[in-house]
Specification:
Number of helices: 12
CATH topology of the largest domain: Tetrahydropterin Synthase, Chain A
Helix content: 55-70%
Order of helices and strands: HHHEEEEEEEHHHHEHHHHH
Strand content: 15-25%
CATH superfamily of the largest domain: Band 7 domain
Oligomer: single chain
Structural class: alpha+beta
Number of domains: 4
Strand order of the largest sheet: 3-2-5
CATH class of the largest domain: Alpha Beta
Radius of gyration: 47 Å
CATH architecture of the largest domain: 2-Layer Sandwich
């Protein structure tokens, strides 16, 4: 009885003991395992086959869309450009980099520009460009768009730094100069410039005040020259223009100050002759009194 209980306990782990009954065929066990696995993956088999096929197709070829151009790299070396369409590849040995070749727009954030006259402007700029040489655009520069932003900023500084106030009012000439500057800078990268310009050039508050005062001064100067050409004196002309202060001769003003100083020196010299020393005059406040009286006489 004890031996039969031991055989029964070992039978689930080791199978049936030879000679204890009919043995099970080992291939039938494998068929059962395969059947169980098939039952589990039969529902997802179509998805697995589709994903596997897509991966193989992707590794064996590439599709270039319209408006793009591809550059084929074999063993890390640029070989040739690829037109739109499907192109077969050698899996894991060849790869393709795509780049848009249609016209694109690059907007530059607001830039602070200081001209040679010391005026400060806040400038917005944009650039319309097209990639003409895909090999140069992908090989000669690490990141094309970032590099173009840097070149656009340097072009803005170079063009506007030498511009005068009159040139900043007319942006058509500045747009042409910026386009020519950027075309020269971006040519080594295989980029052609179609159009470049300044949507807005805004002066800072201090620059706006300076330019307004300069314009007002120029206008008044023209009116004064017109009056002077008609035989009117400069003082009368300025009065007609509307200045707040009447003009005065600087030479006459200096002569008047020199006369007052001479009178003060004579009075102080007389007081010294009378026995009043300079410290005593200062304590008595005679200097302030004399200046006040001279100012009243004037």
């Amino acid at each position: 009885m004890k031996e039969e209980g031991l055989h029964q306990r070992l039978r689930p782990r080791r199978g049936q003991i030879p000679g204890d009954g009919p043995e099970e065929d080992p291939p039938s066990q494998w068929r059962g395992v395969v059947s169980a696995i098939w039952d589990r993956i039969s529902d997802d088999l179509l998805v697995i086959l589709f994903a596997t096929g897509a991966g193989l197709v992707r590794a064996m070829g590439v599709t270039i869309e319209s408006g793009q151009t591809g550059l084929l790299f074999s063993f890390g070396r640029a070989r040739r450009t690829l037109a739109p369409g499907f192109h077969p590849l050698i899996p894991f040995l060849q790869r393709v980099r795509r780049l848009p070749t249609r016209s694109r727009t690059l907007d530059m954030p607001a830039q602070r520009v200081v001209t040679l006259e010391g005026l400060v402007y806040h400038v917005d700029a944009n650039l319309v460009y097209r990639v003409t040489d895909v090999r140069k655009a992908l090989v000669e520069v690490d990141h094309l768009e970032k590099g173009m932003l840097q070149m656009l900023g340097m072009g803005i500084q170079e063009v506007l730094r030498q511009a005068t106030r009159d040139e900043l009012r007319e942006t058509a000439d500045l747009d042409q100069r910026l386009a020519a500057n950027l075309a020269q800078r971006l040519a080594p990268w295989g980029v052609g410039v179609e159009r470049a310009g300044f949507p807005s050039i805004t002066p800072s508050p201090r620059t706006l005040r300076i330019t307004q005062l300069a314009s007002l001064t120029d206008e008044r100067q023209r009116i004064c020259d017109f009056f002077a050409g008609g035989g009117l004196g400069s003082g009368s002309g300025l009065g007609l223009v509307g200045t707040r202060h009447m003009p005065r001769s600087r030479t006459r003003h200096l002569r008047r100050q020199e006369t007052e100083h001479r009178r003060l020196r004579r009075i102080r010299k007389g007081l010294l002759g009378m026995g009043w020393s300079a410290p005593e005059q200062k304590r008595a406040g005679l200097g302030l009194i004399l200046r006040h009286r001279l100012a009243q006489r004037a």
